[in-house]
């Protein structure tokens, strides 16, 4: 199947509707019927603001978060429409891919 890998980058302390934004993105992917999404935490990173974000022993709220999913074109359009409707501002990377499942039925 042809489609896109969508990767969203945020921080642990960013919230939407009283949920951490990374968790909200995973739940939204489920709600919209996307086949899967993975939330990963990182040790350190920086964004467009050039500010270093990292996981510290005493302060984990600034920890970088990445949410990745493989979607077809219609799912990508639906997700981005929904993000616009919810007024979500988040950096993303959208990469054309081929994806599927190996093995028998």
Descriptive notes:
Helix content is 23%, strand content 38%. It is of the alpha+beta class and 105 residues long. It has one domain: Alpha-Beta Plaits, CATH 3.30.70. The strands form 3 sheets. A 4-stranded antiparallel β-sheet has the order 4-7-1-8. The protein has a two-stranded antiparallel sheet with strand order 2-3. Strands 5-6 form a two-stranded antiparallel ribbon. A hairpin with a 5-residue loop joins strand 5 (44-46) and strand 6 (52-54). The longest helix is centred in the C-terminal third of the chain and has 13 residues, at 73-85. The two termini are 17 Å apart. The mean pLDDT is 89.
Write a concise keyword list for the protein shown above.
single chain, 105 residues, alpha+beta, Alpha-Beta Plaits, 4-stranded antiparallel β-sheet, two-stranded antiparallel ribbon, 2 helices, 23% helix
The CATH class is identified as Alpha Beta
Order of strands side by side in the largest beta sheet?
Answer: 4-7-1-8
- Unreliable residue runs: none
Q: In which range does the helix fraction lie?
A: 10-25%
Tell me, briefly, the overall form.
globular
List the total number of helices: 2
Structural class: alpha+beta
Looking at the structure, the CATH topology is: Alpha-Beta Plaits
For the report, how would you describe the main beta sheet? 4 strands, antiparallel
What is the β-strand count? 8
Cα Rg: 15 Å
Q: What would the average pLDDT be, to the nearest integer? A: 89
Could you give the distance between the termini? 17 Å
Element order: H for helix, E for strand: EEEHEEEEHE
Per CATH, which architecture? 2-Layer Sandwich
What is the number of domains? 1
The share of residues in extended strands comes to 35-45%
């Amino acid at each position: 199947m042809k489609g896109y890998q969508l990767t969203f980058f945020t921080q642990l302390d960013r919230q939407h509707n009283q949920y951490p934004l990374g968790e909200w993105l995973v739940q939204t992917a489920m709600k919209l019927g996307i086949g899967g999404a993975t939330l990963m935490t990182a040790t350190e990173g920086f964004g467009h603001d050039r500010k270093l974000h990292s996981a510290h022993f005493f302060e984990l709220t600034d920890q970088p978060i990445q949410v990745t999913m493989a979607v077809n074109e219609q799912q990508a359009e639906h997700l981005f429409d929904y993000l616009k409707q919810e007024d979500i501002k988040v950096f993303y990377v959208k990469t054309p891919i081929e994806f599927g499942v190996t093995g028998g039925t």
